[in-house]
Amino acid sequence: MKTILKSLAVIALAFSLTNCGEKKETDAMGNPTDATPEVVVETENAEDAQLALGAELFKGKGTCIACHKAAEKTVGPSMKEIATIYKEKGASIAKFINEEGEPLVDAAQYEVMKANFVITKAMTQEERDALDAYMMSFQ
Ligand code: HEC
């Protein structure tokens, strides 16, 4: 029994010695150089993140870009025109694309736009808000 304890103590000692002996790379100041580098978190502000999401949805999943350009009318009114009118009237694009509003820009073409509500109503509120913020940034 004693020998077992003894050998355990030796093993433990050996372990602690090898651990201590493990030399860490240090720089001139003696600071360890192999320390995990601090992760620099991009502190994008919330507004930028929302606009980025809006842009992504506008061009991607939303397919909005097929009919809406920044400043010129194509199939649909330009974003500039839409944003200007929505601002003037204090209306919400997020609500409009959730079919909770009336067409304020080009009521005659509403049916063409309405077809997209299948996509936008399946989005989350956050996504609709992001599309809203993105389009409103084109005033
Ligand atoms: C197939 C073409 C097409 C696509 C794709 C499209 N739109 Fe439109 N959009 C239109 C047309 C045409 C109008 C004009 C009718 C109207 O004003 O409702 C319009 C109008 C709008 C308006 C102004 C509505 C108003 O008050 O009159 C908003 C806001 C809008 N679209 C947002 C979007 C967003 C967001 C997407 C992507 C999810 C999108 N559109 C995709 C054709 C499209």
From TrEMBL:
InterPro entries in the cross-refs? Cyt_c-like_dom, Cyt_c-like_dom_sf
* Any matching Pfam family: Cytochrom_C
Keywords, comma-separated and alphabetical: Heme, Iron, Metal-binding
Ranges of residues in domain Cytochrome c: 49-139
**Does this entry carry the keyword Iron?**
yes
**Protein name per the record:** C-type cytochrome
Organism equals Flavobacterium ardleyense
